[in-house]
Amino acid sequence: MQYTRLGNTGLVVSRLAFGAMTFGSGQGAFASVYKVGQEEANRLVAGALDAGVTFFNTADAYADGQSEEMLGRALGSHRKDVVIATKVGMRTGEALLHAGLSRQHIIAQAQASLKRLQTDYIDLYLVHCIDPYTPLEETLEALDYLVRQGMVRYIGFSNWPAWMAAKAVGLQQANHWAQFRAAEVYYSLVGRDVEHEIVPFTRDAGIGVLVWSPLAGGFLSGKYSREQPQQQEGRLSGFDIIPFNREHGYDVVDLLKSIASKHGATPAQVALAWLLSRRHVTSLLVGASKVQQLEENLVAAQVQLSADELAELDKLTAPQQPYPNWFIANVKDPAREEALGS
């Protein structure tokens, strides 16, 4: 297993983190994701621990809180040896109060998460989404309160635009509030949008990057092809929310299969290894519903891609630059770059 610090902190985490979104059962849009019972959850967590995973991720909204409850039970006495991240902001009940990032909801949900996880503190508390109806200052002050009370050790954001996160950090610094130390984002070989604004911001602010859905909902596992675009039991059958060009995606999968054959690896392992090669990535959230699937994905930490293979993947998946990024790239001053070594 590989390890690193969470952003500019002293908190050491494994570079492959266990995502517990599959824990629990339910109906609706995520029924295909919530499919792991407690016994299998125990085996998955034990397998992750045996492989050296020290970072576990969940959310209050996953399977109506079942994910947190089951993760807490599965960790048991190991809780003191690991880092637990959970999230707040998504709807957790029918009443209007049970969603968003108000002080009321954040504190109430933090207390509920602590109870479900069977712990006295949350290592990393992430705001799961934006809340356009709550003043940013209210959200940030509530997070600072949790840190000062000892209920939370570190805070971060998930699925926020860079401008809002940057504004938040400015407010945190000005008011001497606890600062964001992590950003949980979607990032994969078929979704590199974060490289435009979010990654440069997090690097400048010393914020660690956690990647959700590094296999694009399972698409990059190699199970999907032009000939067989659907898998009845695959995650994409009910979690098809990630937009990307499928035709181009099949080209990416073909390249992953070609590289994988040279390493005795799987396409998924190569896709994960590519992300682990990105210096700005702290940890990848790897979920699973079966122990074998988890074990196969964790092997990605041992796959070493060559410079040529990384370059080939980079070239095939390079995202088109938005304005003003393309303008900035086109007006660089070569003389200054050469003189200053940038």
Automatic annotation (TrEMBL):
<dbReference type="Pfam" id="PF00248">
    <property type="entry name" value="Aldo_ket_red"/>
</dbReference>
<dbReference type="GO" id="GO:0005829">
    <property type="term" value="C:cytosol"/>
</dbReference>
<dbReference type="GO" id="GO:0016491">
    <property type="term" value="F:oxidoreductase activity"/>
</dbReference>
<dbReference type="InterPro" id="IPR023210">
    <property type="entry name" value="NADP_OxRdtase_dom"/>
</dbReference>
<dbReference type="InterPro" id="IPR050523">
    <property type="entry name" value="AKR_Detox_Biosynth"/>
</dbReference>
<feature type="domain" description="NADP-dependent oxidoreductase">
    <location>
        <begin position="15"/>
        <end position="316"/>
    </location>
</feature>
<dbReference type="InterPro" id="IPR020471">
    <property type="entry name" value="AKR"/>
</dbReference>
<keyword id="KW-0560">Oxidoreductase</keyword>
<protein>
    <submittedName>
        <fullName>Oxidoreductase</fullName>
    </submittedName>
</protein>
<dbReference type="InterPro" id="IPR036812">
    <property type="entry name" value="NAD(P)_OxRdtase_dom_sf"/>
</dbReference>
